[in-house]
Amino acid sequence: MRNHDNIYIAGRFDRKEELRGYADTLTSLGYYITSTWLYGTHECDGECTSDELAAFAEEDLLDIMSADVLLAFTETPEIGYQTGGRHVELGFALGQGIDVAIIGPPENVFHHHKGVRTFASFDALMESRAAKAARDAEKE
Question: Could you give the 3-state DSSP secondary structure of residue 138?
Answer without folding.
Answer: helix
